[in-house]
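ok so I'm stuck.
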Amino acid sequence: MEPHPEFIIAGFTGDTADYWGSNPIKLHSEYLGLPVIALAILGVGDRRRRLVWWMLGIGGLFLLIALGASTPFYHLWWAVMPYVKKTRAPGMVFFIVAFCTAMFAAFGVDRLERRESAAAKHARAWLIAAGAIALLGLVGVFGQLAQSMAPVEIWPQRLAVAIARGSFIRLSALMGAVALAGVALLAWGG
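replied:
not stuck anymore, here's the structure
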């Protein structure tokens, strides 16, 4: 699994019918969503420090594993850990990262409900990020990124699929930015 905007843009690499990425058998998505990631960042500051550190450690470890050969860590993991050489798809462990992110998002919602001042402080950054992502999405930067990431040296036809996904990627980035701005406004008003 290569790191890519699929974390924040739904359908960036396509779905079963029009997938353009490098994995020939792709039946899952690494999409987390902008509002969830924003709430997870807020949730990292939760008062349950011991649990937060454990979940950060577990989530960070499995993110490094899920990124596979895209990071130097995986080569060390591959060499040191027993039976890892028998595994095929390290990206499949991303569900653990998604679980940790969901827990942190729940902690973030809890902080919003308690009307902590940190939530309002994060709201400004979330609004700026939402505006930047909306602008980049509308201009087509994410669609161009998809085209540049398409593995044309392996499957030349994937570039045409990535080009065809451009309008969907544009819409998805805009919807994610609007959802992030909505969460920011809720935090600001709270």
